[in-house]
Amino acid sequence: MANDFDYNDRYGIKPAARWRPVAAVILSVGLIWLLWAGLHHARPEITFRLISFTVTDDRETEIRFEATRRDVNRELTCTLVARDFDKLIVGQIDDVIPAGQGYIDRTATIPTRNLAATATVLRCL
């Protein structure tokens, strides 16, 4: 009769949880995905940055910007915008950069219809 007595049965202790292997698999897949996502988005295909701008007169603004691209065989089109004090667009151009270099430091002139207060690079595609 001593062989039939079990404290686990008496106090309701159940065997070890079976969820741990499943949780380990989900955790490892999640960590792998997180690592991939972080490395993939850490180095984007195209980046751009405004360096400076100068309002030369009422009808013109000069802008200097830099852009980088991973695929040097790809043509790059950057949209440059000049805005007035009320944040209305007074000038906009698409600056086409031919294929060839990965890093581009470029100066462009944006013709404006009124005096501009600021200029920026809207996007590069």
Strand-helix topology:
Blueprint: H1 7-11, H2 19-42, E1 46-57, E2 60-69, E3 76-83, E4 89-97, E5 103-111, E6 118-124
Low-confidence parts lasting 5 or more residues at pLDDT below 50? none
User: How many independent structural domains?
Assistant: 2
User: Structural class given helices, strands, pairing?
Assistant: alpha+beta
**Which percent band covers the strand fraction?**
35-45%
Distance between the termini: 81 Å
If you compute it from the alpha carbons, what radius of gyration comes out, rounded to the nearest whole angstrom? 30 Å
CATH topology call of the largest domain: Immunoglobulin-like
The level of helicity is: 10-25%
Give the number of DSSP strands.
Answer: 6
Order of helices and strands: HHEEEEEE
- Main beta sheet strand tally, sense and closure: 3 strands, antiparallel
Outline, from the CA principal axes?
Answer: elongated
Instruction: Report the top-level CATH class of the largest domain.
Output: Mainly Beta
By DSSP (H or I, 4+ residues per run), the number of helices equals 2
What is the level-2 CATH architecture name of the largest domain?
A: Sandwich
The strand line-up of the biggest sheet is: 1-2-5
Mean pLDDT level: 93
